[in-house]
Structures are given as structure tokens and as C-alpha cells.
Amino acid sequence: MAKEEGEEKDTGKPVLRGGAGQADLPAEQMVMLLSKYADTYIDGLRFRSVCSSWRGEAEIPRESLSFPLLGLYDHTKTYYNDIIPDMCAYNRRVFFVHDSSHKETTCWPCKPRGWFVEIDGSSPRKIRWVLPKPGPREFNILEHRVSLLHEHYYDGRELTLREKTEKGYSLHLISTEKVAVIPTSKGLVALLIHDHRKNLALFKHGEAKWSPLDVVGDSGGDYTDIVTYKGHFYALQIRQNRNRVVEIDSMGNVTAFENPPVTNINNQKPSMEDRMLVASGVGLLLLRKYYLNRYNTNHEAVDQRTKILFKVYKLDAVLHEWVELNSLGDLTVLQFQTLAFAAPAKDLPGFDGNCIYFLKHEIFHKSSTIPVHPAPYKLKDGGWLEIESKFRV
Fold first, then answer.
1. Do 170 and 161 form a contact (C-beta atoms < 8 A)?
2. Where are the domains of the chain?
3. pLDDT in tens, 229-267
4. What are the beta bridge partners of residue 246?
């Protein structure tokens, strides 16, 4: 291709990468072809990855869902400062990008096997794939295998809520933690975790507003995670006197059942525990991540390195009971911050089944890419992983 002073010459035509040469079609026809034939999200990404010009014209549809604004608060006690438009739930997808020409070598973990990329649907013209280090990386999708592993919705706005109290007004920052959506024959049904109390609200197609979700014997709040599985919502509730999962069908019917109790390990209670729901091909899983410091008989820390242990439970949908798993089979579970998802090992080249992968430094942020360097936690071994020695991030 002709160059002028070290730069590509602008010929007025789209430039295709990966040895495809130049396209003879004008820009408007290229855009028309994209909009007509690239009817999936990944098709749009492929086009934008190989076409170095007119990327802004090759717009990928903005995949967002519009819902009424949350109207759950008693306006005799609370009020908003401004008029807020309808709520918008944006789609986020997690892809695994793997070099299809890469052959496994013994230099692992010197070279990453692949990258997990989270793409935020709120920026249709700004899809950024950014590595934590050494900086931005450019992928040619024609030379890479791309797999969609996980997707969820969110509402990124934050509102300030003033609540009347005996001493005046109390300010609260209101945000939507997570949105889960189920398509039905009549339209979409959505469930979300919202506000500072982490309550649940349900929206059904055709209704004018969200409805607070009433759970028998519960004052509400402290929900930390929601997922969809086989047409039902599952919400995880964690509080001091209650630890359970709530199942909600598309009609709003609720069934609640208790989670396994917190267990002591070597007669010691974990210093901290994270819990996440994971929808997988083998069932609905509850992932429990324990943090434990080693102490002597006087309860003085003798080793500052935190030990981590995982336990995985599978839901018995008939008995509404959690059954502890000793093996994941061919399944690989990946956990980054509060996000956890699962995929068959065959879909993740270089990864092992029956393993849980997680990172020492939780850096899976919005619009970010993570090089995969963690060592796996194997359920069949049931041993501790030492953070300092086992991870290369």
C-alpha cells in the first residue's frame, strides 16, 4: 500500500487488514452491507477489526433496553433534585480472545493463553480493548478465535436521594447494582437490585412501572447478586441473620430457600467470604470463596499471606437444596471481582477443566481486558493456594 511520510495514504476507500487488500466499494455501500448482513454483534466487531477507515460509520447497534424510572419510594418522605429520564439498561459482554495460530509451549505462564474482554454496550462507537500492561493492544479478529462467554445488563447512572429523618435530611447515593432480563412470549421481564438498601424490583412487559418484590417473612434488602437460569431469576441475599437464595419466575412468583451455612475450616472461621451465583451448562452453581489467615493459639497472626479456599454447590431444583460438588468435570469457572461465569474447558484453549481461575489483583473493570495468568484452584485437590507464590499477574 502506498505510504506518504510514514503514514498510510488516504485513497478514499476502506482499507482491509489481514492481507485482504483494498476494498473497491465506496464507504456508503460498505456501511449498507454491514447493516444488512452483519446482523449479529460479533459480525460488527469483525468488520470493525479489519477495516481501518470509516470505523465510525460502521456503527454497531446500541443494545440497550428502556424501562420506566424506578418509582418505588414514598414521595412524602423522599424526593429527587431533578427530573430523571427513563432508565436504560446497557448490555455488557465478556469475550474470550485466543490466537488460533498459537501452539501450546512450555513457556507458560510467560505468555498469556488468551484475553478476557468486557465490552460495554453504552458506547457504540468506542469499543476499547485495553490491557492493564503494557498498554492498548490491537486484535485482528481474522487471526483470533472469539467466544462469547457471558453477558449481563446494568444501569450506570447514579441518583441522589434525600430522605426525611427526625434530624433533617439524609442523603443517599442511589444506583442500580445489576439488571437481569428474561424474554417471554409477551415481552421482557426484568429484575434488578437497586438503592442503598439493595432491594429487589420487578418489571413486567406492559406495566407502567417497577414493582417492589415482596418475599414472605422478609423485610427486604441485602441482595448482592442476580442471575437468570432456565427462565427463572435467582437472587442471592446475604445478611447477618439470613443467608438464602430467592427464585422468581416470569410471573413474579417467589420461592425462597436457605444457603449452606458458613463452615469453619480447621476449627477456624474464615476472616471473609464472597458468594456468587453462576449459571452453567451443568446447573445453577453457588460459588463460595473463603479467605483465611493463619493464627497461633493466642490468635496472633503468624502468616500474613491470605489463604483462599473455594467451595462449589449445585442447586437441586426439585428439593430446593444445595449439594456440594467435589468435581466440576469438564467445566471451567472464572471469577473476577464480583463477576463469575463458567464455560466448558474445550471452549477455552489452554485451560483445564475442573478448575477455578481467579486473579490476585482484581482488575476486571469496565471496558478492560485481562491477560490470563492465574494458576487454577482444583476442586479435586481441595488444597490452599498461596497468593504470593501461585499467581503471576
1. no
2. 15-61
3. 999 999 988 876 567 888 998 888 888 888 777 666 556
4. 235, 256
